[in-house]
Specification:
Order of helices and strands of chain A: HHHHHH
Helix content of chain B: over 70%
Structural class of chain A: mainly alpha
Structural class of chain B: mainly alpha
Distance between the termini of chain B: 89 Å
Number of helices of chain B: 3
Largest interface: A-B, 46 and 45 residues
Largest sheet of chain A: none
Order of helices and strands of chain B: HHH
Shape of chain B: elongated
Distance between the termini of chain A: 53 Å
Oligomer: heterodimer
Strand content of chain B: under 5%
Number of strands of chain A: 0
Chain lengths: 194, 106
């Protein structure tokens, strides 16, 4: 059975099915992270004191730049397919995956530093919500990298047989990746700067 | 200019926009980090940081996620999400302004 509306827009919605699907998924993700941000606010306003300056701001700034850059390479990979340039697509998608790896390695260094200093989630409310928010975000980065890795490698075969459908797939994967970037844009000031 | 060339020119125009947005996002990141070292009072610091984050988020959503030219069904989904998100964000404020006070009876 063929999946309907993978290339052309569904008349009722005006978009292809996967796009409607990813936006519904992202809406549920907004509520997931929203619930955790609400938890953060509730914990912070109820705390007698809240630690400030304990996290590594320069390292997190580098990670912010890396994630923003990966969003640009992601959208450029889609634009390359729109311009029928598969080689450039592979390059930009490869850079996006690489940026994800670098982001996680830096986050790993940060986590390692905390663990070595005995700063575990059980130590304080701040560390508990810090590890929950950044850990969940990190899992989202891993999920995005798996999908992007598939589309960079074996999944890219579709370009030869169904280029429009493959381009749509990259657009959908991109929407997810940009959302992950968007979440970090809020996590960075909330956890590191305030 | 045939339709294929027109389409390619259109995408190239988009690419220029992506680069501009990228540079703006980097500049805003630098500004928000610099301001955090100024040690403003809590209210000002939160306001500035969240305003800059909102601007950055809007740029990503508008241009990288193409929300600036999306279909009505997507806008409808997001408006509904925003309503529920705002309700979710107000919950702790209500809870904080109306706390449960346990009176200790001697």
């Amino acid at each position: 059975m063929d999946i309907p509306y993978t290339i052309n827009a569904r008349p009722e919605t005006g978009v292809f099915n996967a796009k409607a699907g990813i936006w519904l998924f992202l809406a549920s993700e907004v509520m997931l992270f929203g619930a955790l941000f609400t938890t953060y606010i509730l914990l912070r306003v109820g705390a007698v004191e809240w630690p400030h300056g304990e996290l590594d701001v320069p390292l997190a700034t580098v990670n912010t730049v890396i994630l923003i850059s990966s969003s640009v390479t992601m959208v450029m990979s889609w634009a390359s397919l729109m311009m029928k340039n598969f080689k450039k697509y592979r390059m930009y998608m490869g850079l996006t995956i690489l940026a994800g790896v670098v982001f996680l390695v830096i986050k790993g260094f940060e986590y390692g530093h905390h663990f070595a200093a005995g700063e575990l989630p059980s130590k304080s409310t701040f560390l508990a919500i810090y590890f929950t928010l950044t850990g969940l975000h990190g899992l989202h980065v891993v999920g995005g990298m798996i999908v992007n890795g598939y589309f960079w490698g074996p999944g890219s075969k579709m370009w030869k047989t169904q280029p429009e459908r493959f381009t749509n797939r990259i657009e959908v994967a991109g929407l997810y990746w940009h959302f992950v970037d968007l979440v970090w844009i809020f996590l960075f000031p909330v956890l590191y700067l305030l | 200019m045939d339709s294929a060339n027109a389409h390619e020119a259109d995408v190239k125009k988009h690419v220029r926009t992506y680069i501009t947005v990228f540079v703006t996002l980097l500049a805003l990141t630098l500004i928000t980090v610099t301001i955090s070292y100024l040690h403003l009072n809590v209210t000002a610091a939160i306001t500035v940081a969240l305003v800059i984050a909102t601007v950055k988020g809007s740029l990503v959503a508008s241009y990288f996620m193409h929300l600036i030219s999306e279909k009505k069904v997507i806008y409808f989904t997001l408006i509904l999400t925003a309503v529920f998100f705002v309700v979710l964000m107000w919950l702790p404020i209500f809870a904080h302004s109306d706390p449960i006070v346990i009176k200790h009876v001697p």
